[in-house]
C-alpha cells in the first residue's frame, strides 16, 4: 500500500508548483519532501514528476495519481471539517456569478471540492459577464475583476494576477518586436473582452502609466482561447503570467515590453452587506481564495 504521508506530500508539491514552496507550506525540510516523493515513486515503480533545473511537470501517470491524492486530501479535510463544523454547520444554497473568461474546468474542480467538504450546500453557478444585481437577480456572490466602484456591497480581495504582453516567435519574426509602447499601434492584438471592447492596453505603473492602442485582430471572452490564438501567430496578447508559465519556459510565447510592467489584476468576491454574516458565503470565499491557485497550477501542469 502506498505511503499516505508520501501521497500527501506529493500532492503538496503539485499544488505548490515545486519543492521549495511545498517546504514553506508544510513547514518540512525540502530534503525530507524530496526524499518522501522519491520513495513513493520507488514504491510505485513509476515516475510521477519530471524535474529539471527550471521546471516541474507531471508525467501522464503522475497526473492521474495526483487526482486520487487530491481526493484523499479533500476527504481528510472533510473529516476535519465535520468536527470543526459540528456546532456551526455550513448549509443552504449559494447562487454565484463568475466571469466567462474563467476556466470552466477549473471552476468545476473547485465546485466539486467544495461540495465534498460541505455536502449540505447547494451551488448554482452561472458564467456571465453581465453586471449582475446581487439582490435583484438573486445572486449571493459575484466574482469580479477590479478595480470596483464604491457601493453598498462588500468586496473581499481573493487573489491577484500579473498580466504581461506576449507574442509567438512566428508572429514576432514576421512583424517585428515592439521596442516602445507607441510601436504597439502598428501591431495586431488579441483582446480578452467583447466586440464592444476598446483596443487599448494600460502599460506601466504609477506616474509612468500609459494607455496604448493596437489593431484589434479579434476579441474573445475566453482567456484559454486568447492564449491559443497567440500561440498560432495571430498577434500580441495580454494574459496572466501564471496561465502561460509553461509556454514562457519553453519559448513558444515571448514576453515583450517587460520594462513596462503592468499593474496586477485584482479579483474580488462581492456580496451584499445584508448577507455579510452568512456562514456559507464566508466559507465559500475562504475556500475559493485558498484553492484557486492550486487548481490553476494543476491545470497548467496537466496541459
Description:
This protein is an alpha/beta fold and 303 residues long. The chain folds into three domains: 81 residues, Arc Repressor Mutant, subunit A, CATH 1.10.10; 104 residues, Periplasmic binding protein-like II (D-Maltodextrin-Binding Protein, domain 2), CATH 3.40.190.10; 101 residues, Periplasmic binding protein-like II (D-Maltodextrin-Binding Protein, domain 2). The protein has nine helices and 14 strands. A five-stranded mixed β-sheet has the order 4-3-5-14-6, with helices on one face. The longest helix is centred in the first third of the chain and has 25 residues. It is globular, with a radius of gyration of 21 Å. The two termini are 29 Å apart. 29% of the residues are buried. Belongs to the LysR transcriptional regulatory family. Keywords: DNA-binding, Transcription, Transcription regulation. This is LysR family transcriptional regulator.
List the SSEs and their pairings:
Layout: H1 4-16, H2 19-26, H3 30-44, E1 49-51, E2 56-58, H4 60-84, E3 92-98, H5 104-117, E4 121-127, E5 141-145, E6 153-161, E7 163-167, H6 169-175, E8 188-192, E9 200-203, E10 210-213, E11 215-220, H7 223-231, E12 236-240, H8 245-250, E13 254-256, E14 265-272, H9 279-302
Parallel strand pairs: 3-4, 3-5, 8-11, 8-12
Antiparallel strand pairs: 1-2, 5-14, 6-14, 7-12, 7-13, 9-10
Domain HTH lysR-type: 2-59
GO molecular function: DNA-binding transcription factor activity; sequence-specific DNA binding
Keywords: DNA-binding, Transcription, Transcription regulation
Amino acid at each position: 500500500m502506498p505511503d499516505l504521508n508520501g501521497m500527501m506530500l506529493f500532492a503538496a508539491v503539485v499544488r505548490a508548483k515545486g519543492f521549495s514552496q511545498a517546504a514553506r507550506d508544510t513547514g518540512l525540510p525540502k530534503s525530507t519532501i524530496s526524499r518522501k516523493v522519491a520513495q513513493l515513486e520507488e514504491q510505485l515503480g513509476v515516475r510521477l514528476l519530471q524535474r529539471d533545473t527550471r521546471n516541474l511537470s507531471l508525467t501522464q501517470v503522475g497526473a492521474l495519481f495526483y487526482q486520487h491524492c487530491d481526493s484523499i486530501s479533500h476527504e481528510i479535510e472533510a473529516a476535519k471539517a465535520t468536527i470543526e463544523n459540528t456546532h456551526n454547520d455550513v448549509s443552504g444554497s449559494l447562487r454565484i456569478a463568475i466571469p466567462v473568461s474563467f476556466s470552466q474546468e477549473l471552476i468545476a474542480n473547485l465546485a466539486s471540492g467544495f461540495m465534498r467538504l460541505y455536502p449540505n450546500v447547494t451551488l448554482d453557478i452561472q458564467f456571465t459577464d453581465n453586471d449582475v444585481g446581487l439582490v435583484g437577480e438573486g445572486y449571493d456572490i459575484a466574482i469580479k475583476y477590479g478595480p470596483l466602484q464604491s457601493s453598498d456591497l462588500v468586496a473581499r480581495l481573493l487573489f491577484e494576477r500579473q498580466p504581461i504582453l506576449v507574442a509567438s516567435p512566428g508572429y514576432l519574426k514576421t512583424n517585428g518586436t515592439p521596442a516602445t509602447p507607441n510601436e504597439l499601434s502598428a501591431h495586431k492584438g488579441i483582446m480578452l473582452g467583447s466586440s464592444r471592447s476598446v483596443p487599448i492596453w494600460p502599460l506601466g505603473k504609477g506616474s509612468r502609466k500609459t494607455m496604448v492602442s493596437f489593431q484589434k485582430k479579434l476579441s474573445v471572452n475566453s482567456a484559454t482561447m486568447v492564449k491559443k490564438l497567440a500561440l498560432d501567430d495571430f498577434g500580441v496578447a495580454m494574459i496572466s503570467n501564471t496561465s502561460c508559465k509553461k509556454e514562457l519556459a519553453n519559448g513558444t510565447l515571448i514576453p515583450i515590453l517587460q520594462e513596462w510592467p503592468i499593474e496586477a489584476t485584482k479579483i474580488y468576491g462581492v456580496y451584499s452587506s445584508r448577507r455579510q454574516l452568512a456562514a456559507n458565503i464566508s466559507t465559500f470565499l475562504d475556500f475559493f481564495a485558498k484553492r484557486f491557485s492550486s487548481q490553476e497550477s494543476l491545470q497548467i501542469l496537466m496541459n
